[in-house]
Amino acid sequence: MTSQALDEIKIGGLGASRKRVEDNRFIRGTGNYTDDITLPGMLHMEILRSPLAHARIKSIDTRRAWEVPGVHLVLTGEMMATRNLAWMPTLSYDTQAVLATDKVRFQGQEVACVIADDPYIAKDACELIDVEYEPLPPIVNPTQAQAQGAPLIRDDKENQHDNVIYNWEVGDREGTDRAFEQADVISALQLHYPRSHPSPIECCGSIADFNRSTSKLTVYMTSQAPHIVRAAVALVAEIPEHMIRIISPDIGGGFGNKVPVYPGYVCSILASILLERPVKWIEDKSGNLISTGFARDVYLDGELALRRDGKILAVRMRTDADHGAFFSDAQPSKFKIGLMHSTFAAYDVPVGHIMARGLYTNKAPGGVAYRCSFRVTEAMFFQERMMHAAAEDLGMDQAEFRRINFVRDDDFPHRTPFGFLTDSGQYGECLDVGLKAVGYEDFRARQAAARKEGRLLGLGISTMTEPLGAGNSREYDILGIKMFDSAELRVHMTGKAIVRTGAKTQGQGHETTWAQIVAHELGIPAEDIIVEEGDTDTAPFGMGTYASRSTPVAGAAVAMAARKVRAKARKLAAHLLEVSEEDVEWELGRFYVRSAPDRGVTIQECAMAAYSNMPDGMEPGLENVSYYDPPNLTWPFAAYFVTVEVDPATGVWDVLNMVAVDDCGVRINPMIVEGQIMGGLTEAYAMANMQFQTYDAEGNCVGANYMDYLLPTAWETPGYELHSEIMTPCPHHPIGAKGIGECAAVGGPAAFVNAVMDALSGTGVRNVDMPLLPDRVWQAITTGQDVSGAPPVKTGD
Ligand code: CDP
Known about the structure:
The protein is an alpha+beta fold.
């Protein structure tokens, strides 16, 4: 490095805790969300939803709605059917009703739409649509779905004779059976990961604008994956792809909820085509909670085969996933239940077998990856709850049991029992950092002393590695489209630059961090680089942002595009310095002559030359596009520790301390990473403590508003102690980064639950289903029995 090398932190490169540039507009209230956009002549759409969970539609009479002044169009399923749009394909090879024609299959299902001069007229007119329903028995859990004589929910599908969507298995069934025969101890656990909802503050919405004179359809919408929507619209609506422009402007949180294609988007597009005017649809909060992609709702029946000394010999899991009325999750085509089989990836488990069943019920469709890599949240929760129960069954220390089963640092690359290849990590080190920070030994002594006074203290551990960055094209596709991603980098002649990617930020800070990657690769100060995402007419094709895949895939593409630009800049530098390319060295922001380090040119001088003084035969300009197909997933590791005190008289539990040790490889922006971890931990706390969606026996959704579906505020949320001492670079990512966005939401819930279970140890209770509401915990303490949270719940008593 010469004395002229730039200070990377000062230019906002890798490792700089640069303030988020997007916050300039967000905190000033000048963000540009879908609902902020007004187009000339714009109309408004509202949706009429089903009040019943399961009913045959006998008739729909829209006459009174049409008569309301200001109403332009009333859409029903029958009208959609004339254009072959009453049903649409889902991202999991199923079909979903756009507007119901034959039956309604969940409460809140879309039945009709009104398009009017303003949303209030449209809403009033919806109430004048007369729908005659013939109620059918509703199904709200997998047991009911599989019961003899259960009503067939999907009677619209040929060859569908029951409510089973799939039966899928992975692993070595016979090898696992053999290992169980050798076990000294078999530890079993049954539980339910409740239905939760990503619940972004901004609901879903779209403005469709079909221009008859250009034949171009522009749709502003809340999509985490705009290019996928463009492809879907082209295929379903048969509009040529180049005539469709999807623009995702600012998005107020997505968390997986804004990946699917919803009926509201389709109806607003058709309405705009029919009316030749822009049509805006903005969902209300209950509409969002009741009808759009939920998450989880999976039942586990799990067993671990154990040797007396604590070694895990095998794992066996049976899971039932409640998908609601349509199988509409997005997940890699090969894997029916997402990446559930990434479970136990951090542990050296020789063999395992998973049987997964998917079921239709009369509930909203979804199963989306809510801050999660396709069911990884359930996988890690089951894993860590099973680890906790197994350590109890063996009478072993929770930390020690994990330590002896961890994949060791020198065991990488490691093949997991279900075929993944993990490549890096320092699991034991992370555990040690956390144990020290939480004061493990001291807490155990205090816990024992408190017990004698009748006080219930508990400590929960959750450790995990998870696969982030789907994925390599050998294995990962959605509907056949490979899961690569892309970046385009254009350096202007004055050395300023623009980056566009196929990802779509929803608050994660891509506008800040992608510029940091370019600053690292080219030495252009981050403040001289702008980042754009979300416009399919300008951004290169990409699969979008979910499953914490942006840094592993699109972030890698940014680095690779910058490297291609640097390679061209090197040729320009050789030309300017009048030496051969081999004699040119690079340091941050500058090329110089190896034998004369003072003779150099900056990247900005190279940029100017690219437009004004290029060597003979060289194409002008300084830009490039990179499509990045990752060789493997990235495998961040996390260890979370929670201490609690449970009040035996009320079942209320308070968090005393929470320690998080996260190793996500190289941190591009440590401040943003910490923000991601805190947000994820808060979602984990919410799931463990208060947040769930459930259903009563009639199929009514409990959790359709923020009085029932609880979000923690700053008042309830505990403080967190974050640790970043351990950093294991990803061996295949160009800058060594691993994903982080969802780690805490994935690994966190089990730490909270394990802490409460630890406080209850010795009572005979093995499990209380999330959320650990005070009445559930109190019931467990007083009865010594497990408490199930599976629907139906009693309401209205
Ligand atoms: O896909 P998504 O953006 O939700 O998740 P991510 O790739 O894990 O990134 C979340 C945010 O953290 C982004 O702004 C990343 O650039 C940043 N990040 C980072 O600074 N360093 C990492 N090693 C991973 C993510």
